[in-house]
Amino acid sequence: MFDILRLLIIFFIAIFLFFSIIMEFKKPQKSVFWFSIEVLSLLGIIMLFKDFLSKI
């Protein structure tokens, strides 16, 4: 049960970061700092997701 909850939290954070990156591209004034933080966070979430799937 804990693994499913962890997977759902990781999935929702990844969706939020993905749409946040898309919204950053739509802004006329882009913040490189926040964009890089979001991209690095999304890569970290993807690595966590990959690690989770490899344990199954």
Automatic annotation (TrEMBL):
Keyword list, A-Z: Membrane, Transmembrane, Transmembrane helix
Taxonomic source organism: Bacillus cereus VD184
The protein's name: Uncharacterized protein
Residue intervals passing through the bilayer: 7-25, 31-49
Keyword Transmembrane annotated: yes
